[in-house]
Amino acid sequence: MQINSFITKILCNNIEQASAIRQLLIERNRQDSKWGEQNHPIERWTGILGEEFGELCEAINETVFDNGTDKGGYENIKKEAIHVAAVATSIIEYIERNQHNGGRE
Hints:
This protein is an all-alpha fold. The chain has 2 domains: 1-36; 39-105. The chain has 4 helices and no strands. Helix 1 packs across helix 2 (15-35), helix 2 (15-35) packs across helix 4 (74-98) and helix 3 runs antiparallel to helix 4. The model has no long low-confidence stretch (mean pLDDT 88).
C-alpha cells in the first residue's frame, strides 16, 4: 500500500490533508538527514521556529505585494509553511524524547 493511501485511509479526512502530512514527513526526514536528531534547549527552538515563520511571512508578503522577487508565489508559501510545520513537529519530538526531565536534554 502506498504511503499516501495508507495515511488517507488511517489518519486523514481528505486527500489534501494526506498530501500535507506526506510533505511534512518528507521534510522532517530531510531535516533529520541534514542535521541529525535535534536536541536544542527549549529556549533555542523559538529562534529556529521564528526564522522559519519569518520566511513564511516573507513569502506571503512577496506574493500579496508582488515585489518582483523570486521569494513569492504559492509554491514558496507552501514550501515555507511545510518548513514551519516540520520545525514545530521537531519541537514536539524533542519534548517527547525529553519530557522526563522537563524538556531539557
